[in-house]
Every structure is written in structure tokens, then in C-alpha cells.
Amino acid sequence: MGRRKLKLLESRRLLTLLLAGVFLWSLSTVDWRGPLIHTGGLAAFLDFVASLFPPEMSPGFLGLALSASWQTLAYAVAGITLAVLIGFPLGVIASGSVSGSPRTGLGLAVAVRLILAAMRSIHELVWAVLFVAAFGLSSLTVILALALPYSGILGRIYGELFNQVPEGPLRALRSSGASPFRVLLYGRLPMALPDMLGYTFYRLECAIRSAAIMSFVGIRGLGYEIQLSLHDLLFDQVWTLLLFMVGMVVLVDMWSSRVRRSLVT
Amino acid sequence: MTFARASLYGFVVLALVSWGYILAATDSGAADLVSAKTWSNAGNFSRQLIGVDSPTRPAYLEVDRWLVTGRLALDTLAMSVLAIVLTGVAVLPTFLPGARNVSNGDLGGAPSRLGTLFYHGVRLAFTLTRAVPELVWAMVIVFFLSPGILPGAVALAVHNYGVVGRLSAEVVENLEPGPARALRSAGASNIQMLIYSIFPQALPHFITYLLYRWEVIIRTTVVVGLVSAGGLGREFRLSLSFFHYTDLALLIMWYLILVIAVDLLSAWLRRLVTGRG
Fold it and tell me: How far B187 CA sits from the closest chain A CA (Å)?
């Protein structure tokens, strides 16, 4: 009986039906009776699209967009560096490869993995809202909020990468009498480093987006300027700022994919 | 290796300049971090979250408060499902033309000018939507759509369209070309080749990415809800501005329940899709 139940649970047709049902339920939660589009929403949309041709291009505004981009980049880079500093030691412990006794090593690893999971359960902006309420608004508060979930994800990935390195060289180190710490330093770390670097660069791109939305708690940068321009209904300025955002993300993306490619070969 | 090394040094310089800028040119609050007042404020805030000094019972001990906010949690879950379905529906018809090896005929089809044009258009759409964060899309979209679940879901879907679309297109670019070419040499048309070879090969990856993104989306629903006024996010903002801190604690509990539930569900569904376990 139990076996049959399991089969039924895993049959794909049932699953498809279930997912279709969930989707219909999600549709039913939308209030379809009221107007979906604002009065004037369509006009606003057309106005928004039309404002792309052309976006605001005055030198003064381009200068403003450039300095806002720099602010956002600085927050993103600061957040990522802090996340690496926190995530790296946690990743080492999470890999369970640091302690001599397997028992304490595993216990520590499980505990740290739970901490990492808790850190990344909460979105960086939710952390920021809470931290600002607790500590007041300052750039360090916001950078800490940004770094927390990023440490959680970096720590997890670093830990997994430490565990994925080939066993052979590690065994050679161990048999020549190296302590677990030395095995980590001379064995796991150099072998995992290329992937760690590639992943961290990828996360930098995400951090730029996260830094931009910290405008919500009052941090200056691209998101802040977008909010101001939206508030004044200056859609052509919004487009300029969005394009700066896109440009910055594309540049970092190109940099990080070149780093990853040079590491593969 | 040299480029990676130069990048590493470059990044270190960038990090130093960024930290220098933040400590020198912004209101860094470094002095506040060591002041006793900041820490006593933070202590007060945590006590208010738990509700130790409050005359009334904390909200998270009241059953009816759990029920009222549970409704919002359901709305938030619905928003995430709607977002992921919208993403899937939008990506499905576009990720094949967005793959370079499909558009340039590397898989055996004939390259056409239309295909190339479509490829660049789709890639541009992926980049534009992906580069802008969900919250910014939400800020723009509330100008058009009435507040509630829908604008939040649309904002999440717009950003994730770019993320999932790009990943899925890259999967197609990295596929084994063998099966497609075999079909081709057996006389299959372009469309047949796509439907019977490329699509079934890419589909499990595509669904897996959608499920992974669902985990990210559920974390972001609250953030998007802050501006789109739907689900937990709206209540979060209200409780914060009315200083109803024990309500805030209750909302965070619901948020964590949703995140953990979706993580588990997504892991289970991914196992079903890949057929392992």
C-alpha cells in the first residue's frame, strides 16, 4: 500500500494536474473585478515607452547618472568584500574538513550550514529595513545588511567547492603528515580557488542590483535617482538611469565571464 | 590565468577605493557602531520585536492575528506562483530563438536573416529585463497596474524572464548537437528538429531553473510587496511605520515559514523532474 501511494505521488500526470491547480488558485487570488489597469495607466504606459526616444541626454544629467552609478558600485563592492570575509571562514567550517576529529567537524559543519541557511533566508532589503530600525540609517548598516545574505550564499558555495576537489592530492598531503589545516591551505584551497573566484565575480553582478534597491531605505545611488525621477514623472530621466544600470551590469557580466573563461583554459 | 590574476588585483584595488569612498564620503556611521546609545536603541528594538515590555500580548501569541496574517502569507505565495508561471510562459517561446546555435543553423537548420534578427532582439530583451532589479520594475509598474498581487507578480516575472531566459538559452547552446543532426539527416524540418530533439533535451533544465528561481522569488515577494501593496510586504511596511513591532515579528515568522516551505517543495519537485531520488 505504502509503495503504491509513493508511485501515485510521483506520477507525472498527477503532478502536472496539481501544478495546474496551483496556478489556477494563484490566478483566483488576483482581484479581477476591479480595474487591473489604473485609470490613465495605459496612457502612462505609452508615455513611459515613448520617453525612451530619446532618454534624457543633457551633460548635467549624464554626470549625475554617472556619479549615482559609482555610488551604487561602491556599495556593491563593499558589500561583496565583507561577504567574502564572513563567508570564507564559514564556508571552511561548513565543508567539515577543518577539524581533526570527524565527529566535532561534522557537528560544527551542520551548525554552520544552518546559520548560513538562516542568513540567506531573508532578503537583503528586509535585513536592511530591520537594521535601519535597530541601528539607524548609515552606510555601514546597509552594507552589513547587504553582506549577510551574500555571506550565506558564498559560504555555502565555498563549502561545496572545498568538498568537490579531487581526493588524490589531499590523500598525498595527508599521508605525508599534513594537519587538516595544511590540507585545506595547500590542497583544497588552491584547487577550489578558480571556481570560487568565478562564482564571487558572478555574485558581484547581483550585488550591484541589490545595492541599487537599497535606495528604499534611503541610500543614494541609481535606485535613489530612479525613485526621484519616477516621483516627478520624468520618464526620460528614468530611462537614462535604467540604461546606466544595464550598462554597469553588462560590463561586470563581461568581466566576470572573461574571468571564468580564462580560468577554464 | 594571467587575466584572472589581473582581475583579482583589480578587484582588490576597486574594493579599497570603494571602502575608502564609503568611510570618507558617506555618512558611514562608523562612530555610531561603538556608541552605547546605538546599542541600547538596538536592544530596545529587539525587545519591542519580541514584545517583552509591551502592555498587550504580543501578536504572535494571538491565534486570530496568525489567521489574519496567514491570509496575507497565502497571497504572497500566490504572487510567487503567478510570477513563476508568467516567467515560464514568457520564456518558453523565446529561449530557442535566443540560442546562438539555433539561430545560426549550427544544429543543421539554415541560417536566415530573420533568425539572426530575432536572436539579437531576444538577447537584448534578456539583458534589459535581467539588469534591472525586481523592486525597480515594481516601482515602474505600479504606475500602470492597480495595486495588489498582480503588479508584484509582473515585476518579479519581468526580471526573472531575463534570468531564466538567458540560462535556458545557454543550456541549448551547450547541448550535444548529435541528436539534432541525426534527425536533420533523417529529413526532419527545422521545426520538427526543434520540437523532437532540442526542446525535450532542454526542458528538464528549463524547469529546474524555474524551480530554483522560485526559491529566490519567494524571498523577493515581500520586497516587491513593499511598493506593489500586495501580500505580506504591504503589512510589513504598515507595521513598521505604526511601530507595531510584535506584528512585524509575526510577519517575519510567516516569511520564514514560506521560505522554508518553498525551499523544501522546490527541492522535491526538482528531484521529480530530473528523475533522481
Answer: 32
The A residues from 53 to 72 touching B (CB cutoff 8 Å) are 70-71
What values do phi and psi take at A37, rounded to 5?
Answer: -105, 140
Q: Write the CATH number for A214.
A: 1.10.3720.10
Query: What's the Cα-to-Cα distance from B47 to each of B59, B245, B251, rounded to whole Å?
Result: 14, 9, 16
> Other C-beta atoms within 10 Å of B6: how many?
12
Chain A residues whose CB is inside 8 A of the B15 CB are 77-78, 80-81
Domains of chain B are: 59-274 (1.10.3720.10)
Put simply, whether B117 touches A (Cβ < 8 Å) is: no
What ipTM score was computed for the predicted complex, to two decimals?
Answer: 0.90
* CA A196 – CA A125 distance, rounded (Å): 25
For residue A37, the chain B residues in CB contact (below 8 A) are 144-146
Show the domain range for A210: 56-264
Each of the 265 residues of chain A gets a pLDDT tens digit; together they read: 444 445 545 566 777 788 788 888 888 877 777 777 877 788 888 888 888 888 888 899 999 999 999 999 999 999 999 999 999 999 999 988 776 667 777 888 899 999 999 999 999 999 999 999 998 889 999 999 999 999 999 999 999 998 888 888 888 888 888 888 888 888 888 888 888 988 898 899 999 999 999 999 989 999 999 999 999 999 999 999 999 999 999 999 999 888 888 877 6
Cβ distance of B223 and A249 shorter than 8 Å? no
Closest partner CB to B219 (pick from A44, A123, A213): A123
With beta carbons less than 8 A apart as the criterion, state whether B224 and B143 touch. Answer: no
